[in-house]
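[audit] Reproducing an earlier prediction to check determinism. Same input, same settings, fresh worker. If the tokens differ from the archived copy the diff job will pick it up downstream; this log only records the rerun itself.
[audit] input (95 residues):
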Amino acid sequence: MFDYTNLSIFLRLNGTDTAGLETTKKYYRVDRSKISYLRFILEAYDGVAMVTTIDPRAGTVILRVAPGCLTEAEMIIGDLKRDMLIEELETPYTP
């Protein structure tokens, strides 16, 4: 898996603008019994996105999408919506 954090550090040290290399954060509510499945599927797409569970009881997760992979991540989520509950949250999660 490619480590975008190290690339960003390398580019900054060499004077390159890294504004376009920031991860995109997307918040979702999913069926809590499917959080592991979501994580498993996204890990299969090496380097596209990382899933972090914010509230396991509510099924709230955050997707950190790698630079340049937003379209691919949205396509994966769109496909998964056919099989499970995935609801995008408009604002960052607050308990």
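[audit] rerun output stored. Observation attached for the diff report: Helices lie at 4-13, 35-44, 70-80.
[audit] end
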